[in-house]
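User: What would this chain look like folded?
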Amino acid sequence: MKTLTAKQEARLQKKKKKMAALAEIIKLNDRDRRNKKTRSSSESSNSSSSSSEAASKGSNHSIRGEQVSRKSGSEQIADNGCMEEPKSKRMKIESIGDFYNSNDDVPSKKSKSSENNRPVDKKDAHKPQAGKVTSEGISQENLQLSESQYIQLKRELNERKRSIRNVPRLRLKEQGEQASLSLEVNSRTPIFLTDIQHLLMAAILGGGSPCTPWRWCHLEKSQRLSHTLVLVVEGLSLFHFLSYENHFSEANRVFQNKLEVIMPPHKEGKIIEELAAVPLTSSEKEELIKRYGSLETAIETNKDPLLLVKTIFPVDGPSDTPVDQTVPSGDTFPRTQLLLSALQMVDEGYPLPLRGKLANRFQSYKFTKDVYSEVTPRSPLFGLDCEMCKTTKGGSELTRISIVGEDMKPVYETLVRPTNKIIDYLTPYSGITPEMMINVTKTLEEVQEDIRRLLPPDAILVGQSLNADLHAMRMMHPYIIDTSIIFNITGERKRKAKLSTLAQQFLGEVIQQSMDGHDPFEDSLASLKLTKLKLSKGLDFGDAVLDGRKKANEVYSTTTQQLKTQVTIGAQTKEVISHNLFAHVAKVERRTAVITSEEMNVDFHKVFNNKAKVYSGDDAIHNENSNTTSNEFCNGKNPPSSIDCFRTEGNKGAIRKTRDVSSNYALTITNLNVAPQRLELSRIEKTISNVDKWISRLWETVAANGLFVVLLGGTPGASSGVAMVKIKKSGTDVATDTPIAV
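Assistant: Here's the prediction, encoded as structure tokens.
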């Protein structure tokens, strides 16, 4: 072993002493936690008896006793001059202070004689001398570690650190904090149901999830989640929660994160359908990959991008007359699948009629129509492009606009006189020159009215990064196809290609090469051609992200077939996939339970494509899986389904069923409905108190490290709901799991 110098030895001894002091602090804190837990349990057990004794005494006697108690307390404060410091805290300070006041390792600059001759301070008179044991059982000898003790203590502290860090955590990001109900309504920007869906996907699939909740929250150590429990209460909205918040006492006690969330148009069972769009199980994930080539393509194919857009924009519901949902000739899939969702529009900076900061920013913007009709696979496409010039207002203003119809012919084009004086024509980019603007009188307001008259109520606007164009027009539109998003040649969503690059690579055309600057007709025409080309080729055409995932999964599929090994379990031989990507497919415990009351009209077979087992009535209470052992599963008897659906009698029955089975499933979704008659003025307080009790009882059911999500799903007249999210901390004591033995 290498011989240490005197200086190195002094440093090592000092390090050992610091580590020993840290260990002593941890022991004291662990002891305090245990004592506090013991006191709280004893106080709760004695509270009922003490309250009954107090109630048996007369009121006058109680008042006199209270006065005596107050008097004695005030006299004690007067005698001492201040309240006495808690003993446990005072003794810890003494012990650690004793350690830091000793200077065995680091010689003092003062001479020993001066230290010995220093008068003893009265404040220090009560402190223990070095080598003496304090009332806490800590002495200087306890802080002296041998080499083996030092190594062991270092190992124990590292193990303790890992045990503390290796737990799932959920923290809000800026977008999530902006949706918090603690903010005023004008400062609040809600999140979407899609955000909650992404959180559930990350909780279930972990790192293999194609969608993450990074936009509004950060989920750490998702693989350590024990299970996920979701309670959906339809019929209650944000209005009910804020109006009767004092009746949500248990919900406020459990949840710190309470957020406003935009729900889909109210329809009984609609929320469960949206959450069901998540690949709920690993086997479901594998099947989607086989069918669509990648999980990302499956989600893009099956999503309803307009679900939340309909709640934000004034969109009429479906008409009584049947709408033609067939795909036009030349299209291989519905064009509605290329539309931006509300979540994408927020992320890309499109103007939206939302509250909070967005409302203040877009309050002067106009809708392209007063009322929109529902978009279909046959809704017309319109290519759009605008050019801007820099003005004295400090930004850019609209100076030219061009709109092209689906027949590739121009339908609208005009120059626009900005409100403010032009200071830079940006000719190399806009193609605008001073000579072109001499006789222009068309104003922005006139252009807005022209567009409102021109576009049909189900028009789909197509363009490259149309958010900039709509901001220049100061208008909002619900149906958008953005070529910078549907095409991707970089393999990364955040890195977008220029329109000229896309046109050259996919259309074989060279655009934006004129010395006179850009031509908006040329740009809008190129965007429209690119969109029509993608519609004719397929959803993953021109998208390196989706296409790359598809090819990678094809390689994985071939590889896993070669890597399958035969594993014998009892008398039966099972195939186990060795590849990590699909290793969790064979785990039968990764299952999902969906629980509703019989009053709710949810077609489980339709929602889950006939892949779920449905139990109703008595079967929901005593289903066959509840009495089936794991050995029977392994032997092939009564194999469990990936998704079990239970219909129970009433909401209370659904809560009881959830408490019984939630620990057996990776994901449990309980969907309840509050009938409108229960929200009448004479009954609403009792109804909300009952909902609060449901939340409390389910919280008791959630296991340690379990994710609990509560959604108030809104009403027909209010699309704003409430999302409450929390991970239950482990109930075990860290000191018990990883004690410090040195």
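The mean pLDDT is 75. If you want, I can go into more detail on any region.
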